[in-house]
TrEMBL record:
Organism in which the protein naturally occurs: Dyadobacter jiangsuensis
Keyword Disulfide bond: no
Molecular functions (GO terms): acyltransferase activity, transferring groups other than amino-acyl groups
Hydrolase among keywords: no
Taxonomic classification: Bacteria, Pseudomonadati, Bacteroidota, Cytophagia, Cytophagales
Residues annotated as domain N-acetyltransferase: 12-155
Pfam family, one: Acetyltransf_7
Annotated protein name in UniProt: Putative acetyltransferase
Keywords linked to the UniProt accession: Acyltransferase, Transferase
Length: 155
């Protein structure tokens, strides 16, 4: 585990992962995507997986949330203004893990923006419950694929 402790409570720690943690992060990413991104086909998952692992993780400020046994339950990647990725392992859905990561993004990093796939209504509802509102829509994702992106911001 990284020595960098960012936020701590009795039941979890938010910390900065290292490249040693990347296999666990990509496993969480894949499990979460398979559980939530039903619009993606297998070839899309296999296309994005090495990009996430070999490029995207290093392009953002990564933070993970660990339980008391040091197991990573979820992670987020931030740019200076935007939550670029947020994934929670399906075993931990509904436990407030995503909310804790977003609270850190908002209060600890002053992040006010997030993008979400339009075809992922559960994620959209999650962000809207946290106060985010749709500001605009892009018909294609960042890779030019026909997966519309909703751009959300806090008021």
């Amino acid at each position: 585990m990284s020595d960098t402790k960012v936020m701590k409570s009795i039941d979890y720690v938010i910390s900065t992962p290292t490249s040693i943690d990347y296999p666990a992060l990509i496993e969480i990413w894949e499990a979460a995507v398979r559980a939530t991104h039903h619009f993606l086909h297998e070839e899309h998952i296999q296309h994005f997986k090495p990009l996430i692992l070999n490029q995207y993780f290093d392009a953002v400020d990564l933070f993970c949330i660990r339980d008391q046994s040091d197991m990573i339950m979820g992670f987020a990647g931030f740019s200076p203004e935007t939550v670029e990725m947020l994934f929670v392992h399906p075993d931990h859905f509904g436990k407030g893990i995503g909310k804790k990561l977003m609270e850190y993004a908002i209060t600890g990093r002053s992040i006010r923006k997030v993008d979400v796939n339009e075809q992922n209504p559960d994620a959209l509802a999650f962000y809207q419950r946290l106060g985010f509102a749709i500001k605009s829509r892009s018909p294609l994702d960042g890779s030019g694929l026909p997966f519309p992106i909703l751009h959300l911001e806090l008021p």
